[in-house]
């Protein structure tokens, strides 16, 4: 894909996340965090793609990410989120949740707080599988079926739902200010309202038939009831959280597990997915005055849809038509964002026109010309 730089880092990369930019500025992101897994010594590292970063390495290419600082990480980095521009939160396979503080000029970082056994079994630690942040609040989920609510400025746990799930919770996202949404290993979406003292979900959605594990979830940035998930079967599912207990649309996306799905934060006509099959797909919806068609590139050529309309549209008219039936005229296109790969693409993030992803091939790919 044009504009893509590859940086080989000698570590399997499990997570990549852009440092947020000011919402009032038009600048593109320049700094991202990466976490590693399945290495003898795992790390969290901070990188820059800014033009003003000086490199002492003669073999560096223009546009290559430059390492600013790194820190040892106990266990695999199973999730990674920026709390704000100065703090990063990690979820560890040891069950720990850690806040790292970036120093001025991001030349160093250090642990500012750690909840060591945030997730655990009676006699052992349980991997913390997901984290989502809305500063100062941090919500974590784990293999132990537990949901934790922390505040970055308080040591004590604010709230925990011990038996939120009898299976592994794989991912979590905010649905609204007081509501979160989790996905689990038996194909369920559960919505939780922290205003309620009850330890039971406010709503449960699930696929009919086989209970395929769901690995990832993303909420539409403008239409909060619209949710995308991906799982073990590589299918992209779009759900309407307001109604119905099953997905509104099902699309064949990948030939192996889908590890992450992300709507573009400011242009949600665009959606991105990555997979164990080594691919990263860019999904784009457009409207068409002709009969509804689905256009898909590469090996993707099949769409199964209950409502026969495009997923992830940003405009109200596209969204409403998509969820209400097959009267819409729409189009869905997919594009492969990476050269052909055999090893898993574990993580991606997109902000502005910049996309970053990490792979089991020990490479970080950055594209600064994403067509959105």
UniProtKB/TrEMBL annotation:
WD repeats: 207-249, 251-293
Entry keywords, A to Z: Nucleus, Repeat, WD repeat
GO cellular component term of the entry, any: nuclear pore outer ring
Statement: the UniProt record of this protein carries the keyword NAD: no
UniProt xrefs under Pfam families: WD40
Record carries keyword Translocase: no
Broad class of where this protein is predominantly found: nucleus
Annotated localization: Nucleus
Signal sequence annotation: none
PANTHER family tied to this protein: NUCLEOPORIN NUP43
Name of the protein in question: Nucleoporin Nup43
Species name: Merluccius polli
Gene that this sequence comes from: NUP43
